[in-house]
Specification:
By secondary structure, the protein is an alpha/beta fold. Among the domains are: 108 residues, ATPase, nucleotide binding domain (Nucleotidyltransferase, domain 5), CATH 3.30.420.40; 196 residues, Nucleotidyltransferase, domain 5, CATH 3.30.420.150. Helix content is 56%, strand content 15%. The chain has a six-stranded mixed beta sheet, with helices on both faces. It has a five-stranded mixed beta sheet with strand order 3-2-1-4-5. Helix 17 crosses helix 19.
Length: 468
């Protein structure tokens, strides 16, 4: 073999002996030069893509034209534009929501609220969330505990009464925890105010249930009751008397309705008093009298009315407002269990229905006739009515006596019934407080931002003066 042959044998078969590139290398160079595919399959795919592009560039008509036009728009749309449009849509939705709810502020809308009223006779709870025109009740609880039982004779809360109240409070605590209540106000009224062991009971309740109570004054109780009944006031009247017949006392609040007609949300409290008679204390006071047993129940009822009337008449600050009631420019509004029960009986309900009782108007004479009849049939007769039952049969009579004394002192042609009061007023106060806290928080943020800006201006001002 010659030298030339031996050299050619050491090279690849595709290359010439002179060192020129072989067919494979030349093909690769051509592919790199044209930037085309490197295989037959790739070439076929590349040709198909070219045909599709040419078809897209050709003029289209009808539905196909619109379809390809949408495709071009989608191809030109960038992710950043999509995100911006999404944010703009969210802003528009928020603006629409604010237009639907112009009075909404972020303060109250962040919480679930609870109002717990531990009275002389009942333990009542409301759990609510805010809505556009106030609040919506999402849970409730009520139980007769008779915390003030024996208080008038012993001067202290009995162990049995405190045990009943603690059991009811445990149920309330569980409901509040299950509803994830974030703002709550628990109040105690007349029984804890007057009992010598009232503070000890409050401490025990907090230890066993985790609920913190406030023993409110009679003035606070009157304000909460008036605020809770405000939506039911008749704007056509000049005055209104709100009364709350409780277990240990009766609150009387005189309201001037002129501010409501002028556009304000709440009326003005022009006078108020707390009468030291409730359904429990009045019943126990007459049970202790020597001549109570064996007497006709109607005679006892008449004595109760006279005693309560004398106590009410001693409040002379309300005398200037009697003419408003006599001339028909004022009306009564009652928010106690006695009044709501009587209204249910007057309406002929087989079972108590709050939706039918709350806000109903009752003729004063019809209410008097009903009370007169119930005071003559005895406890057993009253208990047969399903809206009264055995739980209220004995305490309804002193409640009727207090109501009659109020009607005799301030005569009114009609009376409005309110199945609302303290708890509703407490819920509204909690929501207003949350709004105020949000406003103060915003003011502090603005002050901090303003302070940082002022500090920055003070720091840059010497430099600017030096430059000048």
């Amino acid at each position: 073999m010659s030298e030339m042959d031996s050299a050619s044998a050491g090279k690849p078969s595709g290359e010439a002996a002179s060192g020129s590139p072989g067919p494979r290398k030349r093909r690769r160079k051509r592919q790199r030069r044209s930037k085309g595919p490197r295989s037959k399959d790739q070439a076929a795919t590349y040709n198909a893509l070219e045909n599709k592009v040419a078809t897209a560039d050709a003029p289209q008509t009808g539905a196909e034209d619109s379809r390809h036009g949408d495709a071009d728009k989608r191809a030109k749309r960038s992710p950043g534009r999509r995100r911006a449009k999404k944010r703009a849509g969210a802003t528009d939705n928020q603006q629409k929501q604010n237009q639907r709810n112009p009075n909404q502020r972020p303060g109250r809308w962040r919480h679930i609220y609870a109002a717990l009223d531990l009275g002389t006779n009942n333990c009542r709870l409301l759990v609510a969330r805010p809505v556009e025109d106030g609040f919506k009740v999402i849970d409730a609880f009520s139980r007769t505990v008779r915390l003030g039982e024996g208080l008038s004779s012993q001067g202290a809360l009995s162990d049995e009464a405190m045990d009943r109240a603690i059991e009811a409070l445990k149920v309330c605590a569980q409901k509040m925890q299950r509803r994830r209540v974030s703002r709550a106000h628990c109040i105690a009224t007349e029984a804890c105010r007057t009992a010598k062991n009232g503070l000890q009971f409050i401490a025990r309740a907090e230890k066993e249930t985790g609920l913190t109570f406030e023993i409110i004054s009679t003035a606070q109780e009157a304000c909460f009751a008036a605020a809770g009944c405000a939506p039911l006031l008749d704007r056509d009247c000049d005055k209104a008397l709100v009364f709350d017949i409780g277990g240990g006392s009766t609150e009387l609040i005189w309201l001037d309705l002129t501010p409501i007609r002028e556009g304000k949300t709440d009326p003005d409290i022009i006078a108020w008093t707390s009468v030291p008679y409730g359904v429990v204390t009045l019943a126990e006071a007459y049970a202790q009298k020597a001549n109570y047993n064996g007497r006709d129940e109607f005679d006892v009822y008449t004595d109760m009315v006279e005693e309560v009337r004398e106590s009410i008449l001693s409040f002379v600050e309300a005398d200037p407002h009697k003419n408003d009631f006599e001339e028909g420019r004022a009306h009564l509004i009652g928010n106690s269990g006695t009044v709501t029960t009587l209204a249910a009986v007057q309406l002929g309900l087989r079972r108590y229905d709050r939706s039918r009782v709350d806000g109903v108007w009752i003729d004063s004479q019809d209410m008097r006739d009903l009370v007169d009849g119930l005071s003559r049939i005895g406890i057993e007769g009253r208990a047969e009515n399903s809206c009264i039952g055995f739980d209220r049969a004995d305490l309804l009579l002193p409640g009727c006596a207090i109501l009659t004394a109020i009607q005799d002192t301030w005569p009114s042609g009609r009376m409005r019934v309110a199945d609302r009061g303290l708890r509703e007023g407490i819920l509204l106060a909690l929501m207003e407080k949350a709004d105020m806290e949000e406003d103060h928080k915003g003011q502090r943020k603005r002050r901090r931002r303003g302070g940082r800006k002022n500090r920055k201006n003070r720091n840059t001002k010497p430099d600017a003066e030096a430059a000048q």
